[in-house]
Automatic annotation (TrEMBL):
SUPFAM superfamilies the UniProt entry points to: Sporulation related repeat (SSF110997)
Domain SPOR: from-to ranges: 92-173
Region annotation Disordered: where it falls in the sequence: 1-20
One Pfam family cited in the UniProt record for this chain: SPOR
Protein name as catalogued: SPOR domain-containing protein
Organism: SAR86 cluster bacterium
Upper lineage: Bacteria, Pseudomonadati, Pseudomonadota, Gammaproteobacteria, SAR86 cluster
Transmembrane segments annotated in the record for this chain: 35-54
GO molecular-function terms, A-Z: peptidoglycan binding
Record's keyword terms, sorted: Membrane, Transmembrane, Transmembrane helix
Amino acid sequence: MKDFANRKTAQKVKNKSRRTFSSKRPDADVISNSTIFYLLLVSFCLAAMSFFYFKTEISSIKPETAANSVTINFPTSLMDDSILIEEEEDQNSLSCKYFVQVGAYGNKKYAIEAKDMLKIDIQNITINEVYSSLNPGKLLNSVISGPYENRSAANNAKEKITIKGFDPRMRTICKQI
């Protein structure tokens, strides 16, 4: 039979006190106490010098109360539901046409692509060559739909163009009659 008694206990205790991983270098502190003391002394000196150099006094900084004296007055007629807007007579003598600009492209193939995407839903789409106001001399291909007789029709076309994924802009050309 096998004997399960611990007869070699003294030898196992010796092995437990031995290190598994050891280095050949002697144990030393990573940062010595004198280095830590020196760093604290230097930081304290810098803080003291900054208080004297900048002449700061924490007690002298006090919040001030601000008095707001803004009053908003508006006519009492604005509290009603209806507002009267005066229209100038010059607008009746103007004839306006409304356009919707789909986009301005530097490459003509992109302008043609945009026109082809919208020609089913929008009528009167044209491509005009214009020069950029930001970069003089740069030729752009502007995709424009219209003319529309009133602003409402132009807004309806603008909504249809927006649904297709574009960011259109309203353009108005007015002439005196």
